[in-house]
Automatic annotation (TrEMBL):
This is Ionic transporter y4hA. It comes from Phycicoccus sonneratiae. The chain crosses the membrane at residues 9-27, 33-55, 67-90, 102-123, 135-156, 168-187, 220-238, 250-269, 290-313, 319-341, 348-365. It comes from the Bacteria. It is a multi-pass membrane protein. It is found in: Membrane. The lineage of its organism: Bacteria, Bacillati, Actinomycetota, Actinomycetes, Micrococcales. Residues 35-189, 223-364 form the Sodium/calcium exchanger membrane region domain.
Length: 367
């Protein structure tokens, strides 16, 4: 990661951006803001996103892979869960499908968008995008199991009316999610860490120290703190922007559910930029760790949290996907398996995933 040697002006900018963003968040929280403030908040949101990417790369450079991508994936998802719960508390019955729409959007954006973009960038520059099929395949299998258990099964269970789990079923899904996610993290960081390290075209580990000396412990801890502040600013400012986004969505004649897609796109911007940067440096495995790790964390952390929150949140929790969404998820998983098995990909595979993302976005706007 090219974190060391950052220009002093940029370093001050990345330090100030999350603090200014949090100040703006405190000043505008709970208020109706005009068009000028909407634009200012949007600019601060973009600055917070870029700051989050910078500090994530500093931390990742210090701790190495796969811990670096795990830090960003978990941090973003924890705050995404907080945003979902906050919106559900204030959204009434109309927010019953908010968690489903947001989590499904996160899966499609990460598996098709981030993964597809990374493969396209890597293959375009280096001819092939090379990665470790064993680690990536295990991550993809975990994502598929989580998505099927938590998002597909509620559509077909009969214990509760509608695409909703009963209390016992939701508890089982929550425990299963925790077990799957914990098993993957142990595999990624302890048992088979080498499966998730970047590789060259010959299958050899990429030298992680060929760009710059790693930051000091103090710099890494400072960046970790600023990363968390940046992510809070990103999600908070995204929530501030959400009424304007919702108004724009409704004015355009789009479904209300598309608001969740837009917010998911905003929240996942840091990971998208970080993954693209890694792909340009021939670290495709880092990009895939970010994509699949974020998808996994989005389900594996969200569902258990919502299972606990459902005890006091009065809003129904409709997790089951509709027929169109199930078809898109099935196609995505089949294509992803075919992409992962060879251990390398061309621009074709990246393009296929991006087209699937485009299909998801289009059908979200025009169901």
């Amino acid at each position: 990661m090219a974190a060391a040697g950052t220009h002093p002006v940029l370093a001050r900018t990345w330090t100030a951006a999350p603090l200014v963003g949090l100040a703006a968040l405190a000043a505008t929280w709970g208020r109706d803001i005009g068009a000028v403030l909407v634009l200012v908040v949007a600019l601060l949101l973009a600055a917070a996103v870029l700051a989050a990417v910078h500090h994530a790369e500093v931390v990742a450079h210090r701790v190495g892979e796969p811990f670096g991508s795990l830090v960003l994936a978990v941090a973003v998802t924890v705050i995404e869960v907080s945003l979902i719960v906050t919106l559900m508390l204030s959204g009434g019955d109309e927010a019953a499908t908010l968690a489903r729409d947001t989590v499904f959007a996160a899966v499609m954006i990460t598996v098709n968008g981030i993964m597809g973009l990374s493969l396209l960038l890597g293959a375009r520059r280096f001819g092939f995008a090379n990665f470790n099929a064993e680690g990536t395949g295990g991550a993809l299998a975990t994502v598929a199991a989580l998505a099927a258990t938590c998002l597909v099964l509620p559509t077909f269970t009969t214990g509760q009316a509608g695409p909703e789990f009963t209390g016992g079923q939701l508890a089982f899904a929550a425990v299963a999610s925790v077990v799957l996610y914990a098993a993957f993290v142990v595999t990624q960081t302890v048992r088979h860490r080498d499966f998730f390290l970047p590789v060259t075209a010959k299958g050899e580990p990429v030298d992680e120290d060929d760009h710059a000396d790693p930051p000091t412990d103090r710099e890494a801890w400072t960046s970790l703190g600023l990363l968390l502040l940046s992510l809070v600013a990103v999600v908070g400012l995204a929530k501030i922007e959400s009424p304007a986004i919702e108004s724009a969505v409704l004015a355009a004649g789009l479904p209300v559910s598309f608001v969740g897609v837009v917010i998911a796109l905003l929240v996942l911007l840091p990971e998208t930029i970080a993954a693209a940067n890694a792909a340009r440096r021939e670290r495709i495995q880092v990009s895939l760790n970010l994509a699949l790790g974020s998808s996994m964390a989005s389900i594996g952390l969200t569902i258990p949290t919502l299972a606990v929150a459902s005890i006091w949140v009065p809003t129904p929790l409709h997790l089951g996907l509709g027929p169109t969404q199930i078809v898109l998820l099935a196609i995505t998983m089949v294509v992803a398996v075919l992409t992962v098995v060879p251990g390398r990909a061309t621009r074709l595979q990246g393009t296929v995933h991006l087209v699937l993302l485009a299909a998801f976005l289009f059908l979200s706007m025009s169901p």
